[in-house]
Amino acid sequence: MKSVQRPLQIVIGVGLLLALWQAVVSAGLYEESLLPSPGTVWQAIVSMIRDGTLAEHLGVSLYRFAAGYILASATAIVLGLILGRLPALWGIIDPIVQVVRPVSPIAWSPFIVLWFGIGDVPAIVIIFLAAFFPVLLSTVGAVRKVDATYLKVAQNFEIGGWRLFAKILFPAVFPYIANGLHIAIGTSWIFLVSGEMVGAQSGLGFLIVDARNQLRLDLVLAGIVFIGLFGLLLDRLVRVAEHWIQRQWGGGQ
Are 119 and 132 spatial neighbours (Cβ–Cβ below 8 Å)? Predict the structure, then answer.
């Protein structure tokens, strides 16, 4: 019953949003040039799909996102597992992380562009910064809360070194790491688009800026729709990967 109810709720929610959108346009609160109707935006979406514009910019954005997100997640998980087991070292690094973490990655964009130039690398670096800290903090916090029983069992079986991290710590803390991965998905996708608006000549962020400069707000809204849809899709893919990993350890459903 729930499997049928959920798609129905999604359809109703989207339908209400489109109806409200069309009502605002039909009421004449804004001119068509300032707020294109759903039908106009749909035509823009179809045209972007047909002429290959969507595939071109989306492919570039997904490549940048995958490179930055995967690199940040892998680095943060490895460092988090290590630092979580070294509380004295983490006590030194933690204040530095807490000072740097609240700074928006976009604030670093002038330096990033000067250091790495124009192209894919600046966007990848911005994504890395956006995704790194949520995963790092989630991992460190989870490792520090691991049940001491797991560590005692590992000691009894003489499990140490990298095997302790791979066989005991990582499976134990993975559900908490997954929370950080979900947060990182949202922040890194947001800052990917922001980064492409200031330091790239391609991608979904650039597509929106270019359409704005041409006063094509229908294309701007089409780009926003794609950003939202693919952000949702990426989050769902991470959830599928999470469930698959948990099933390998016998914890998934």
Answer: no
The string of DSSP codes covering 50-114 is HTTHHHHHHHHHHHHHHHHHHHHHHHHHHHHHHHHT-HHHHHHHHHHHHHHTTS-GGGGHHHHHH
Side-chain half-sphere CA neighbours of 239 within 13 A: 9
For residue 218, the one-letter residue type is D
pLDDT digits (tens, 9 = 90+) for 180-229: 888 888 888 888 877 787 667 788 888 888 888 888 888 889 888 888 88
* Token digits of residue 188: 């890194």
Q: Is the dihedral of CA 65, 71, 73, 74 positive or negative?
A: positive
**Tokens read off for 122:** 């600046």
- Percent of the chain with pLDDT strictly greater than 70: 85
Assess contact for 6 and 12: CB atoms under 8 A. no
**Residues listed for the chain:** 253
Place of tokens 């490895």: 78
Q: Which two structure tokens, joined as six digits, stand for 196?
A: 């492409």
CA–CA distance, 72 with 183 (Å, rounded to integer): 13
CB 236 within 8 A of CB 189: no
- 95: tokens are 């204040």
Whole-model pTM: value is 0.81
